[in-house]
Amino acid sequence: MPNVCINCGRKIGTFCMESPFELCKGQVLCAKCAGAVRHKIGNLYGSKSEGEFKASKNEILSKCKLSYTDLTVDAIEQKIDEIYRNDVRPQIERTRNRSIDAENANIQAQAELKRQMEEQAALKKLAECQLLTTGYDFSGYKITKYIGVISGEVVLGTGFLSEFSASFSDLFGAESSAFADKLETAKDAAIKKLTLKSAEKGGNAIIGVDFDYITFASNMIGVVANGTSVVIERLEDKLE
Fold first, then answer.
1. Is 4 helix (H, G, I), strand (E, B) or coil?
2. At 145, which helix (H) or strand (E)?
3. pLDDT recorded at residue 35
4. Chain centre distance of CA 45
5. Which of 122, 146, 124 minimizes the C-alpha distance to 227?
6. Axis crossing angle, helix 174-201 with helix 89-128, rounded to the nearest 10
7. What is the dihedral of CA 184, 185, 187, 189, to 10 degrees?
8. Which long-range contacts (CB under 8 A, 24 or more apart) does 142-145 make?
9. What pLDDT was estimated at residue 97?
10. pTM value > 0.85
11. Phi and psi for 18 in degrees, rounded to 5?
12. How far apart are CA 82 and CA 88, in angstroms?
């Protein structure tokens, strides 16, 4: 049975060269009546928001009222509403949910980064407050817990020893002072690593601190600071 165009009443045969534009509830527009509205309605599927869809819908219906019967306009509006319910709204909601998920993930990432930075700052502060001794106790303090042996290592770069050898003839000159300064800098860096490890393990002091110097191939030298991380308390605080 042939379809009938809801607008002009034209019968649309099965073997019609141009397919009709299907609306709702079996209603159709012939190819001639469908005209540009077919393309405009098709563009609705790409709407990015509810506001964009509604604006396009109003524009389509305004133009349709100039060219189509009221019955046709109603059918076209039903078709547009169906597209919104079945396709556009779910698509907008999926996009919104992805945006919310991405925003939540970003908030969580920022919170985690802030937590890590605060944790690092707290550890750095604890590391700076560490007490150190080459001995095995502190006057006025009691060791309440032995945490374990720790170490901090620093390696001086390639060419360090060759530079030193080249200036060895001037042991008491500026070059030997520069060498000592480099070793002192390396020792300070090794101590910073040592105190940071103690803070990470929950210690507030380090006993038995000593240094080892290790030479490697390619003119490299390592400075290692060793010690035992402990927890200490003031004796007077303990009495209180």
1. strand
2. strand 141-156
3. 87
4. 32
5. 146
6. 120
7. 170
8. 142/232, 142/233, 142/234, 142/235, 142/238, 143/205, 143/207, 143/230, 143/231, 143/232, 144/231, 144/232, 144/233, 145/203, 145/230, 145/231
9. 94
10. no
11. -110, 130
12. 9
